[in-house]
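Two entries, shown back to back:
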Amino acid sequence: MEDPGGVALTFDDGPDPEGTPAVLAALEARDAKATFFVCGEQVERSPALAAEIVAAGHSAAIHGYRHRNVLRLAPRTFVDDLERGIAAIEDTVGLRPELYRPPYGILSFPGMVEVTVRGLRTLLWSRWAHDWRADRSAAEIAAEATEDLTGGDVLLLHDADHYSERGCWRGTVEAIPAILEAIEAAGLRPVAA
């Protein structure tokens, strides 16, 4: 991330009919913006919710059409998945995504080339909170995500449980106020990536 005074809030795997509205409400309560790395198949299941993300001033980025380890995909299958995911976002929200995050943070060199050819920048993360596990408390999530924050950090969080433990997004939603407070206490500001 290029903003030395900002900490990017990013949410993966949505949109989700329960988790995403709760995350959006928590962000709105603090006037914070984020980037949502959405999956095309979830965008197609909840198109109004995907549009709501963008209407609220957040960024929609691509996390693939389906949430699969790209190293296990044939090159053509990876390209088809990527293009189908881009199309789902573009057709639903009217904007072409600029950022890509591969599921599990894994991407091959040929995959990087395909992503770049399509005008996307890959963005991983510098901090996470293992919030895809349902047994993580809000305090644990906030503490791990914000330990020794520095400008330019990218926080990986989740607004959905489609590909992880059921209900895990609840701890994330509860952690958002403490995460935002920690960012501000470090003299930084929350930003979209």
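entry 2 starts here
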Amino acid sequence: RMPGAHHEWAVQLDTSAAAVEEGARYTVYASIRVEASAEEGSAFSAGVYDVANRKTVGSMAVELDEIEGEGYQTYEIATAPLHGRMYIYVAPPQRPGEVEAVWVDRMWLVERQGAGNRE
């Protein structure tokens, strides 16, 4: 649970803990729910940051009017080649009084098979 009053990458998964196969392409997913009193505007952001190369390899942002219902929903964060010096993050929108909390239940990776899987 992250309060909606800040925008820090407060939920993170280190890819070294996920035992990724170096250079293999993965799609990153997260199960997230948002508590908000507002109906429009930013709900949260998420992405994959490459620490070794100091760059974001994929990111996304969700608006409140895109969320259906109050329960957890699955979001596709990014598809990219991963290695052990990266992290996956979720951040609330820094909207005190409008977004009360962003909840992350889990994150998972699905390795992509087939041609072009490795870079």
